[in-house]
Amino acid sequence: MKKKIYLQNKTVKNYINKRLFTLLAFSILFIVACTSDSENIQNTDVTVLTTFNFTHDWDGALVTNSDFNNFQFTNQNGETISIERLRYLISDITFTNTDGETIELDTHNLVDLTNGNGLNFSPETKISTGNYTNVSFTFGFDNEDNSENYIDLNSASFNVPDMLGGGYHYMQFDGKYLSSTNNEEGNFNYHAIRAADNPGPNPTFPQDTFFTVDLGPINITSDTNIEIKMNIAEWFKNPNQWDLNVLNTVLMPNSAAQIMMFQNGQSVFSLGTVSQ
Amino acid sequence: MMRSKLVFLNLILLVSFSCSNEGVGYEPVPAALEIPLIFSDNIIPPVIPNDNPQTVEGIALGKRLFFDPLLSGNETISCATCHSPQNGFSDNTPTSDGAQGVFGTRNSMPLFNLAWNYDERFAWDGKELSLERQALEPVQNPIEMHSNWDDVVTKLNQHPDYPELFLRAFNSDNITKELAVKAIAQFERTLISANSKFDRFLLGQEALTPEEENGLNVFMDEARGDCFHCHGSPNNPLWTDNIFHNNGLDNEITDLGLGAVTGDPSDNGKFKSPSLRNLAYTAPYMHDGRFSTLDEVINHYSEGLKSSPTIDPLMKSLDQGGVQLTPQDKADLKAFLLSLSDPSFINNPEFQN
């Protein structure tokens, strides 16, 4: 009886010793593996946070929501306008590296100058340091992203009616204008969406109206702030000199107006200060 | 029965205090909000403050307080007098009759889906910054319940039931106004309405009539109703943006609304877009209850808009008073609006006194 117990104890001890040894061996292995691994990361793959800061101007003069509700901007066509609401969607921020590889962040951000939400946006995904030949984003949503359901955008009432293809506004820009001819006041709802014809159960889409904004090359060495500037005046400028007396409200079902917004939008955004 | 329960509860508390290190003790039972599918599928989760979690006992206490005239100075009216279940937790007069028979200047607001008011700005003008803080107000408002919290707390302390109910709800034998409004807010957060005909249509359980269907199209059509920019849509089933707008009721603004709260003249005449759920029960309409029928409301948007400096730019064709809906579109729009009413909400036994 006693012997048996002793034996048992011995086996247990042996067992533990063996286990301890393997454990130790493995641990050392891990430590070695891990250190070399983290050295690797330090050498070639440091990832940093990027923050996109959205700023707005009218031909160079800074615009914030404290400039809203005032007839203080004159557009190319000569109308004085008051901005009352301005919010827009950007998505799919993309970094292109020197090898031509792209890192696309499948994400979106609603910039709302009206209440100051979304003006500073840091995507969750960190970016490797290095030289990028281009950083770009999509104004609005590409058609695939636009067909998905986003609870944040639904909650913000940013939807487009199903009869126009559903999905989301790319931009909601509302305000008032004084006619340059008779100084009469009118409203405008400059709402950019995916252009659609034949509103109803089966709308058709004449052409895409989301677009890619290329910010150009950026060298990322550490956590980086990237300023994205919107010159609001450009929405009214070129190639189409926008006449608010003609194109003011009910522009969502007006595919020709949507295509003009798409064209004017190309020169609206630019890269501002990059700081790190 | 009640007495013995109280003693039992006290005993538990005593035990839990004396050996608090052990962590045994009475805790109110958590009662997570039941979030309707139509909400969880489409909109962000409700706002529940960390310092006021929903509990079975908290909700029960809140309900009792909500219906109790003890909260008013002369014990004649309760919250439910102006927020009656049968009226979608609103009342049926343009403005509301307080404890002293004095009418206020604003229409009582319906109460439902309040936890989904993400910015937590309550009242027509956004002056109340949370449900808890809002509930402090009517009790001491001279033209509402015309009481004060010291008196109410004294009465609650002397009451045969309330001390035990507070103990159960908050593990505290110290009744305070802060705990009272926490309980009321918990009850208010349970007032969820998401079972209208239109909700069942969205869930594929019921069909719309051709009239309701056309009414939805009027609502969603920028050239006709264009209601969806402010009042939600099938994708935002709250049927409100919870934001403040001037929807063209007056040329001369007398009630400044949000403007009086922010001090910014460009907010003058702005009021919160109400949800369009349960309109069948919540007449009269608008912040001052000026319209007694939905037809009047629809006529307002169609041809009665009045211009003023802060009118929302979404209000179109102002020179003609609106977009001039056809009689058919008006009737269909009304039919659609009524499909957003939820009889199971006003008849829910959980919400009755």
Strands, helices and their partners?
The complex is a heterodimer of chains A (276) and B (353).
Chain A: H1 2-44, E1 47-48, E2 50-58, E3 61-62, E4 73-74, E5 80-97, E6 102-112, E7 120-121, E8 127-128, E9 130-139, H2 143-146, H3 151-155, E10 171-178, E11 185-192, E12 211-220, E13 224-231, H4 255-265, E14 269-275
Parallel strand pairs in A: 2-13
Antiparallel strand pairs in A: 1-8, 2-3, 2-7, 4-5, 5-6, 5-9, 5-10, 9-12, 10-11, 13-14
Chain B: H1 2-18, H2 37-40, H3 56-66, H4 79-82, H5 131-140, H6 149-158, H7 162-170, H8 177-189, H9 197-202, H10 210-220, H11 228-231, E1 244-245, H12 258-262, E2 271-272, H13 294-303, H14 327-338, H15 343-346
Antiparallel strand pairs in B: 1-2
Task: Write up this protein.
The complex is a heterodimer of chains A (276) and B (353). Chain A is of the alpha+beta class. Chain A folds into 2 domains: 1-45; 48-275, no CATH class. Chain A is built from 4 helices and 14 strands. Chain A has helices at residues 2-44, 143-146, 151-155, 255-265, and strands spanning 47-48, 50-58, 61-62, 73-74, 80-97, 102-112, 120-121, 127-128, 130-139, 171-178, 185-192, 211-220, 224-231, 269-275. In chain A, strands 4, 5, 6, 9, 10, 11 and 12 form a 7-stranded antiparallel sheet that branches. The longest helix of chain A is centred in the first third of the chain and has 43 residues, at 2-44. Chain B is mainly α and 353 residues long. Chain B folds into 2 domains: 25-192, Cytochrome c-like domain (Cytochrome Bc1 Complex, Chain D, domain 2), CATH 1.10.760.10; 197-345, Cytochrome c-like domain (Cytochrome Bc1 Complex, Chain D, domain 2, Orthogonal Bundle). Chain B is 37% helix and 1% strand. Chain B contains 15 helices and 2 strands. A two-stranded antiparallel sheet of chain B has the order 1-2. In chain B, helix 3 crosses helix 8, helix 10 (210-220) crosses helix 14 (327-338) and helix 13 crosses helix 14 (327-338). The radius of gyration of chain B is 22 Å and the shape is globular. At the A-B interface, helix 3, strand 10 and strand 11 of A face helix 11 of B.
